[in-house]
Amino acid sequence: MPVFYGCIFLLFISCSSPLTWSPYPLDSWNSLTSSGWQQDLDALITTLSTRHPNPWTVVSRAEFQDNLDALVDLAQELESQGNGGFTYQAQLITGLTRNLAELQDGHTSVNMYSPIIFPLITAWFPRISSQNSRNQDLDKPENWELRIVRIHRDYSHLLGARVIGIGGTTLDEFLESKLNSLIPADIPGHQAYRPQHSNILSNPYLMAGLGLADFQPTTGAMLFLEVETLGIEQDPGTTTTAEIPTILRGDFHSAVWETARLGVPDDWDLPIGGYSGDRWSAEAAPGILYIQYNSSDLNAMGFFQDAIQLLTDGLYTRLILDLRNNGGGNSVAGTWFAKQLGGLNIPPENLVTLVGPYTFSSGMWMAVDMMHHTSSRFAGLPIQTKPDHFGEVARFALPNSGIIIGHSTKQWHYSRGKKLTLDESGRIRPSPGLEGVSTFEEWTQGIDGAYRKAMAYLGIGEW
After folding, report:
1. Contact 358, 198 (CB under 8 A)
2. pLDDT per residue as tens digits for the range 320-366
3. How far is CA 325 from CA 233, 373, 381, in A?
4. What are the extents of the domains in the chain?
5. Rounded-to-integer distance, Cα 189 and Cα 211, Å
6. pTM over 0.85
7. In whole angstroms, how large is the CA radius of gyration of the chain?
8. What three-state secondary structure class fits 249?
9. Which has the closest alpha carbon to 4: 179, 135, 151, 102?
10. Looking at domain 265-387+422-457, which of 3.40.50.300, 3.30.565.10, 3.90.226.10, 3.40.50.10140 is its CATH number?
């Protein structure tokens, strides 16, 4: 099941800074000069050099400094041309976001968001159903398509549309590389980048900074998408250009949204029907316990103790643990649960862990623990971070712009001493034959391809 939340916050075990994610500091930016920007970037490289355990593993300090110097030159050029306000801010925040992404540390980035958004959410879907595709089919970028899955009701005729171009540029490898340049992926590749594209597409500052959105003082920022529509108000396959203006982020929840998903939750597969929250469990079928764990939390200990009791008492003999939406937190409860499962000696044919590109940080650690302590099989999509990585975020604010930077403070070697089966990139990927995700058509009907793969493996249904 593709995950397409409008904002993904990458957190780790704990944060040693009281600063939190917040909107871009526009008031500070309005008075920001190129000399003030120079001071900010000097503070950035000095702080990263002293607080990050090793920021220069991919990009050298000299290369990073050259990139920052280019950002100062850009600020001076824009200043001399009289470009201020939105254009000035968009260029600088985009350049800074790109420079930090080049470090390829998923925990080191600008920890702020735009106060205005383009009101749409997109997601990448495979063109071929997991029901009849091989694992390598999903590894090919050309076998995926970008769809609009949620949008403000004023543009509901675009629901489900296939995005084929952005800002007058065809959606191809070159355009994707622009979007990818802003994403701090631990393991570069389309399966790491594409889940984050929706965050960038909805951010007017980043899209304008990439040259993929327009800005006029009278109308504000505007996103132009070339799409093939589903035919809700037009003939199926009609190609059209959609103009989408911004709304305040505060209206994100209050505005009336339309979704491309059909039916009601009761008609959907269990993991995507009618449930929400950080953790919950349900009976997937007689004898099969399904657990969805979306945020690693020490307070989950009682929840997991109850689950272990159910399994110990024999009420359930098979288990599906869903970590696909777990982006991190406190790893203690998850590690405890994996160790307890290992003590139950559940055979591999009765235990499946669902993972994917959003299984991150402590969520990824729990998947590692499941691989080490149990005989679990894995289903879904590959995890996009390695067991050995940087983490534990601290934050600081640049002195003049007020931009908040999150950065790693520790380097973890979580694979040390563990029995792990990793691919050539050093990541966990689904077991042979269990790679699965929904196509767009399946998703609209509430069909969860990875969940159905897991259920079929446990002997329920075919997929």
Report:
1. no
2. 999 999 998 899 999 999 999 999 999 999 999 999 999 998 999 99
3. 34, 21, 12
4. 22-110, 116-259, 265-387+422-457
5. 23
6. yes
7. 23
8. helix
9. 151
10. 3.90.226.10
